[in-house]
Amino acid sequence: MPDTSTSTIDASAPSAQIEALLTAVAARPRAAEGMRAMMQRASEFPNPLAAKLTGIALDPYGREFADRFLDAYWSDEPRQQAALRATGSGSGTDREVIIGSGFHAAVYAAVRVLSGHPRPLVLERGDRVGGTFAMTARPTFYLNSRNRGGNGGLAGDQGASLNYLPGAPIQAANVSMTEFQTNTDMAWVIRLALTQFADVVTNAEVVSVVRDGAAVEIQLDGRSALFAGRVIDARGLGDPSDLDIANGSTILTFGQFMARMATMWPLRGIRRAAVVGGGDAAKCAVESLLGIGPQPPMAAAALDSVDRIDWYTDTLPTTCERWQQEIRGRYQAIGRYLRPDRLGLRRLTVLGRRARPVALPGLGLIDGRTYDLVVVCTGNREVAVDGLAFSDFYDYPIPDTDAVVASQHYNLPVFRVGPHALLPFTPQEFEDGIAEIPANAVSMFRTATKTAALAATLPAVTED
Predict the structure, then answer these.
(1) pLDDT at position 159
(2) The CATH number of the domain where 158 resides is what?
(3) Residue 43 CB contacts under 8 Å (≥ 6 apart), including other chains
């Protein structure tokens, strides 16, 4: 049965789920090599648990085995039913439920439990826990912020690490030495935090949230309804807005493209490709097509190199010189492909306009040009849940302060956190120049400390 103890948890004491993970790894000698080796440096860690989890993370086979173990654990139907039954009647209305299993769900769960509250129940609509960073089990894109140790803080704080997840058993800086980490590095930290601090149910899509006395009733697609005293809406950015034009073969969304990049020979047969959109997702897609993203499996430059990439966006520089002046360091490597190489060939062209692709048999068509593959990265739209319309929420500040950390439903005990809360920039963020970059409005890391503050300051949920 899920642990609903209200006592303050010892951050160094593994949960039952983490204990099961460590036991499974230890029983597989090859998977346990990294864990055993890291125990030689245990004195350098805050506690033995952090040393063991870091050892697993740094050993490729150990991490892969642990990932598979967690997927199997979370998908176990009897365990899922036990977790849902714990909140399936009036006796469950003193418990918190988090919708979504990404970065902000992990932040909230970790800080909440470490503040002495019960483990929340996390509902993930898909079959893989970890949100956007866990969209693939293999590395397919790099994070935007540099890999460095430290604590959380404002984006403009040079002493802060934006890859920091408050309360997690280990941090992203534990799991690699690369300057910019991959999506799976952060996914590993998120998944560990949820294993330590939450009960997770996968394939649990929320259909509606309605009031039921002092609590709320949560309707799930294909499952019995459950009840909660408070809901934390941590669904992230939603689904791609271009799903209607993607056909899954020649025209792909960012998520579909990254799933392809996690397979063998993902660029096989692609000589001419196009990317539509100018945000971070589009930049990551271009990196993959250029071969400067994370290395795909079983790919070779002689066999799997894209000859030409046309980039349709009206928001980015079209020359190498302007790119170097206007684009932040994380994406500087792209700029050199905007000029011809020593043979006079130019692989990347920014066309300076928007476009809408059309699917043809075996091809994608844009303005009369045909492409072997088109990747559309034109933003996301919110997934509709009855009772949780964006217009029903208003800014929620920490009591007795002006610090807005979430948005609150006008009539239900529901709080939105993270990117889709669309929280306003703070005066400090304006002063530091963070607000000058529109994309920062939905930055996951910008709002991490806000979600942590919400978790630390909300009162306990009590059953009437």
Answers:
(1) 66
(2) 3.50.50.60
(3) none
